[in-house]
Fold each of these.
Amino acid sequence: MFSESCQKRIENEYQNLMKQFPQMEAELAEGMKACDPDVKLALKYLYSHMPLSDLGNYDCGVMKDFAEHGVKLWKEPFFKETLPEDLFLNYVLYHRVNSEGIEPCRAFFYQQLRERIQGMNMKEAALEANYWCAEEATYKSTDGRTLSAMGVYRNVFGRCGEESVFAVNVMRSIGIPARQVYVPWWSHCDDNHAWTEVWCDGEWYFLGACEPEPILNKGWFNNAASRAMMVHSRWFDTIQPEEDVVGTAGMVTLGNQIRRYAFSKNIKVTVQDENGTAVPKAKISFQVLNYGGLCEIAMVETDENGTAHLQTGYGDLWIEVYKDGTFAEGLLRAKEEACTLTLGMKHTMEQWEDFDMNAPADAPMNKEQPTPDQKAEAAVKFQTAVEKRNRKCQDLRFKEIEEFEKTHQNRKHLTEQFLNALSEKDLRDGNCEVLEEHYNDALCYCDDLPEELFVNYVMNPRIHNEMLKKWRRAIRAWFSEEDAARFRKDPKQIWEYVQKTIQEKPEREHGILVTTPADCLKLGIGSMLSKKTLFVAIARTFGIPARLNPMDCAMEYWKDGAFAAVEEEKEKAAAIRVFGSDKNTTWTYYQNWSIAKECEDGYQTLDLSDEKVEEEGLLIPAEPGTYRLITVNRLPNGNVFARKYLFETGAGEEKQVHLTMREADLSDMLENIEILPFNLKDEEGRGIEAAELTEGAKAALFWLEEAKEPTEHILNELFDRKEEFKKYEDRLIFVIKNKKALKNPTIARCFETFPKAAIYYDDFEENVSTLGRRMYVDPEKLPLIIVTDGSLNGIYATSGYNVGTGDMLLRILNAEEK
């Protein structure tokens, strides 16, 4: 099917794999026995380049869908373009996009689309396929486990990483090379984002997965991406891709696609020891502030000259280097292109240190816009897609779960508690057979433990973000009764067994993928996270309550009325009590503060997302060691005023620390963002260009949602300070949906209080979405408020209700008079 050299490469790599895992050879040979030579070759490629977790978790039948359909597309392509072999192998045939679950899907998606895209070129087909994606799925925030493409299709929902997994599989199913690209962490706001790239006519283009547009290289994230510091893609092959590469993460080569989205520079970092000697093979971590702490966007290793390079955006980067027990750190400013770090630095302890992190300026590179006719046609198509999707949503039911509940009506309360221990995603994606095994096989321990402990930490099949599969009976069969008794007497012996028998091959693993417990035992290989998951699974199988601590993923088992660490060094023998020093500040973890423990090669941020800092302080059980506390003040323009505080805590000690926040001047907080032209309607329904309304002086535009609490709150702030706002009432522009809104008492009072304010009308669809995203606020939250500078430049925006918005608006308007 492929060139002779390509076939030879695949055969050689597959033989090498079988030498490493002879226990899999017979099983795979049996699975491939009935396949024709081309499908067999495609399967060998997949097996040679898949993470080891896939080798353990999925049988040959799953992989045949990808292999058989890939061969069909190679022999009977939809499009006239001839694809390079490596591109086809990695971005059409290959089964995995990122860290999603794997299910057969390609042949199914192909059948849904083949008639719809008949006669189209690659670009047209990619655009049309994305409309189909929008008919079948839309965005919804979910937990960290990534659904399979078929899971997204069945459930209609997915976060951006899941939507892009779905869209990439759809594109590959019709022969369009596609991949997920990913901003690991934004620099200008808290979060990240993933979308889809498609290869058409020899070039890569991008689109928002399940967010169709009439043209390629357009998505709501165009402007946000121009402020990115890193945009990753993934390549699972052993040969190197012919494009910019950041480095490797396990078996994955990380491509660097920043040049397609943002103006960028190539920076150079040199690492030396205290004698000035170059340090090779030092790992350099490049970080930005996100979710209240420092988050890594890239890891690069120094060469023999002690240097490393990175193509990145024009923003600030925090850089850390750890090697052989020494470290160095520093801040590389946006205007700088090189720095030298010297290992052997010492921490400054118990002293707050201030530092700023500036995000890249808004400077979009992809500015092409659809024509008015294209936009009008797209609006109709999108509405049709939404209506179809909504009808599909009405038919959604947790059918597997309903069946499970009926089967176990005799234990209704216990069954409810068991299902409550699972996430909504688990319930939507649940497999009745899997749940049955975990439920029934754990019942023998039901009377031995308190219900909450039993349900959550013995019966519960969910351990981390692994794929839910059967494992209890396989584990029971693997061990003798003597082993089980020994484990119950001393659960730490489970970990001793796992450490002795399960090897780690991180160079053949990917990210947070977990080899499920039974498969981990069978394969004899697993990542550290897979091994930890296996420990918990073995313990629960034999009635020992166990978990991975949600704060730091440490293995724990129930002992003497509390969870105890399996590994001595993970014992929570110390404590940290965190106080909020400013009563006017709401301290929210992952928003304006975080805490991390220093480890051998950096810091591990603790997950305290469910905890709150109360008046009596937040008590954190902790391992003895060095900790770094960070507080952040994220400014509206995306920049961050930050503070860090390092301290140590010892065994038996309760360390007390007080959070403090840096304040910002108004000038630090304002944006300067060009807004694309848009129209509002006047009383007679005539279109008015926004530029006419904002020309000459600062103006504040309010999109108001009548009878909704956030709108009521902001208008009440204006009423409370009406004398101050009256000075600027001719610069207040209130936008409502229709004249019915004027009958709302609060809206009516608004126009009585500020009779010189302007009233305009809008459908709150395209303008709210486009402007909200353009100004980097949430367009799903109303009211939307934007302040312009005398032209169509946005200098401030907010959405929803935030305490103090009225005061902020007055500060901006008053600043003009000074």
Note: The two ends are 75 Å apart (CA to CA).
Amino acid sequence: MKKLFLIFLLTLNVIYGFSFNYYPIEDEEKGKDTIRTLNLDEFVITSSVKETNALKRMPTAISVISPKMLKSRQVNSLTSMSGIVPNFFIPNYGSKVSTPIYIRGVGARLGAQTVSLYVDNVPYFNASAFDFEFQDIQRIEVLRGTQGTLYGRNAIGGIINVYTLSPNTYQGSTVEVGGGNYGQMEARMSNYSKFSDKFGSSLALYYKKDDGYFINNYTGKKTDDSENIGGRLKLELEASDAFSASLFSVFDHVSQGAFPYMHIDSTAVNFNEPSSYKRKLFSQGLSLKYQGDGFVINSNTGYQYLNDEMYMDQDYSPRSVFSILQEQNQHSISQEITFKSDKKERYNWVVGAFGFYDYRKVSTPVALKEDGVGMLQDQLDRILSNIPPAIKPSITYANDRIEMPGIYRKPSKGIALFQQSSMNNLFGAEGLSLTFGIRADYEHSAIEYFTETQGVEINVRPPNYPPHLPSISMKSDTLMEGRFSKGFWEVLPKIALQYDLRDDAFVYFSASKGYKTGGYNEQSFSKLLQNAMQEALMGKMAAGMPSGGGTGMPAGGTKPPSDSDNSEMPKAPTLEEQLSYDPETSWNYEFGGRFSFLNKKLNANFSLFAMDVDNIQIIHLLDKATAGRTVSNAGKSSSKGVELSLAYAPTNSLSFFSEYGFVSAKFKNYKSGDTDYTDNYIPFAPRHTLSVGGSYSHSFDNGSFIDRVTASAQYTGAGKIYWTDANDAYQSFYGLTNASITVEKGNVGLELWAKNIFDTSYNAFYFEAGDLAGNTNPLVQKGTPTTFGAKLRYTINY
């Protein structure tokens, strides 16, 4: 351990001249310089670049998570926050490629998200970037309910703001190593230094791996192993009392086995193709701040590059039917400028502008393999079986593999103007305040597509065809190429009334509008191309068969329309209509409050909410999950519920908490084909979330063998979770128990931890997939079993 730490110090010294320094801070009470030893848990700064109310006074449901809370509740990534915030849930889909966030019953498994993520005021545009390792977090804010006025697109369910430590606020170094069962290993190193009164820098690095939890019966090996490495560099300059700047750069690399989907009655996966996910993520941000007389100007510039590769055995079986390799290459640029009042006056305001450009290139080479081609042959044989033997031809596929490569470019851009104001002591009434705002958003999105089939060839032998002659070969590869685009405007108002009952208690009512962006489905092309391929084959056969050997179908493979058909048949949707989906909009209504009791030892927050969503975007698995996924608009939904948070700290060393959320999220006016799903529960959103726990810390006298012992435990539960629109499959309420104990001596800390202590069995994800025989198989992603381990930490605060 000592050698590892020395290597770390040497590395930092080479990189940017690391040294052990402290800076005296004036003690206002004693009037002299003192050395201030700061603990990371102390830092919860509640400033914001665009809110007109302090976080603790905001008229909205908000949870602020401190470093101490992250540590005691064992939160190391966004996905591990499920349940610790009321009505906040993230299902595990088997890899980091998708991190769908559900708040108040509203979420999205594909396409645009309903909850947006910001890290140090820089937006993350792709849910594939949401799941990253937390390190040196200063605070996390979860704003529940529609936040469209200040944040714009994709904030129907809420906003997550993640802030990392500032080297100008905290100076110190940490080295941490750990391990556990299932091959878990991790190492973290960080240094925060201030080189002068005006300039500070930080460097944080991490490495994490595990061997996976689930066996693939086909290979006899674990299928979901994972390895993650990354780091963050931050530079901060306080040039003067008026001007400051912050620059950060983040790198994250993930390589993992993925999608350990198994039959619901099984304990192991069983597929022959490798399933994996790899991701490289770069994120950069530049923040500039100018402090004027009574106002402040903030500029936040962000750039993100994401490159990932997903390989999936999409028939989820030991047969070679259908596999997909999806590669994403994404560049995102954003710029936001805010001009905000900075005096505690009766009237506070903020005005701002936001713009972005996002370019995403997706490559999805789908392979239909020998068993898949055999499935097409079976379909063809069934069609031919209806033809009388005297005129029935023999038709067979010539190749045992059909490739369907596709490249899709999806540029989008947008601009927004927004304003928000807060008026205190409204109409002269002490404690009554009004917050109101409005935002105008314009967005333009497009898709450029190029996809084709390779290897589509059939051998045809007409009836009574001379046996000595070779079969007639017909090649019918299909190409689809083109471009579509569209733009849309949204106006997003907000209003909130707040009344202070006393200094530490208030209630509020708010109403706000939000929207989730529309776009185009690139994953729909798998099904569209298969249909076009089969139609082209039928046309080739009809056109190429000798007289008397045809199928009774004209060239093109479609029945010729009659006069009655022209009047009765509905107009077929265009290709753009099949690919396109429109924005989803919502109105959120909320009544809530915050209270402190017992000299601020007991704090309580509550909210009652109702949300109406129009043009809701629904995810469909095509052909029983064997032909990709698609997004479409389908009617309306409503979400109603309650949230309650309690925190009680009778002493400085003992604390308890409880977080509960209930939501009833249902479809309204939603039909798919002949099936009516109206009043069914929205899938994947738990009706209840619950988290209860506590923490106790005991400090020993000077000279003791140890300085302090801290023990924490929590129980977190979620359910009932419906998995399908029909509500015919679900996960009942389940709960996980986690605990940890930390022993500290000087700068050294040893933590022992365990998760899912009682090895609760549950399904984290469920879907239905078809097989070659036409059966529907229920597949699940099992929950993580009991894990435990230890961490050794060495920290220097200076």
Note: The two ends are 21 Å apart (CA to CA).
